[in-house]
Amino acid sequence: MSYAAAALVVPPSPVSFLSLNSFAPVEELEHGVKPIQQDYKWRLVLAYDGTHYAGWQYQQSPPTVQCTVEKALMKSTKLERKDLRLVGASRTDTGVHAWGQVAHFFTPFNYEHLEEIHAALNGLLPTDIRVREISPASAEFHARFSAKSKIYHYKIYNDSIMDPFQRHFAYHSVYKLNSAVMQEAAKYFVGKHDFSAFANASHNDRVPDPVKRIFRCDVKEMGALLQVEVEGSGFLYRQVRNMVALLLQIGKEAIPPEIVPHILATRDRKELAKYSLSAPPHGLCLVSINYDESHLLPPPDSPANSFGRHHTIRKCKVPFY
């Protein structure tokens, strides 16, 4: 395989993401060269109610968010799953929600405008999954590996009677929680630590690095609602839910805040199990994923981002009498 200047190659669509200084791979043929199809990368920002899904990661049954999004993409682009290569930034677990999940996919063709594909995707998707934004992505961008930090929120409804409108999105604690001691304990999570004690065994064959950096961990009180907000460089399997579970026990004043550094130091999941189990998934939401600004810059000559479009009513001309 050799390389030829992209300026000499006819692109697959009227608008190319390649600059004149970039290079595209070509295959050598008997009578010249044939350009290999240039792929175009697209970034999605997704929101979903995870109640009826077995998490993000692809599987046919029970349904997952990735599987559902891929089916909509296949219908709207007429491409196969292997060609789309959809990748999500975070593998949210069964029953976990998202407001700011990020994913990317590929097409062998360009779009002049993104509003049409955006509207088509939301028209094909069930109402509990929405594409909030679609934008062109540079070759360097990767939804998972380019991420600088992720922000999760866990909601706890702390009252004797559960608000029925919060039942799918907040954990109900009938025990009166001391938010001040929960906040005191949350500060122990901030910094760079080995979180082995807060990770469940994963079905993923890849062994993750247990050392993660937590940039902030706050407990905010909003009436009957407590919200645990955690931002970190990355998280182990069920790490946030295990952190919240321990904070709940501390909030009940069953154990002191100083138990957090003790459990962290053991790096033993069995030590945490002496005090708490995982918090239920429905209180957890992936709020946003942060990237370097350089990774979010669009390629040259790319279409504008689509944030959806409002419908308007055309005013009718009233006949003059």
From TrEMBL:
The keyword Magnesium does not apply. CDD domains: PseudoU_synth_EcTruA. InterPro entries: PsdUridine_synth_cat_dom_sf, PsdUridine_synth_TruA, PsdUridine_synth_TruA_a/b_dom, PsdUridine_synth_TruA_C, TruA/RsuA/RluB/E/F_N. It catalyses: uridine(38/39/40) in tRNA = pseudouridine(38/39/40) in tRNA. Its EC number is 5.4.99.12. Residues 47-145, 185-292 form the Pseudouridine synthase I TruA alpha/beta domain. Keywords: Isomerase, tRNA processing. It is an enzyme of class 5 (isomerase). The keyword Isomerase applies. Gene3D superfamilies: Pseudouridine synthase I, catalytic domain, C-terminal subdomain, Pseudouridine synthase I, catalytic domain, N-terminal subdomain. Belongs to the tRNA pseudouridine synthase TruA family. NCBIfam families: hisT_truA. This is tRNA pseudouridine synthase. The lineage of its organism: Eukaryota, Viridiplantae, Streptophyta, Embryophyta, Tracheophyta.
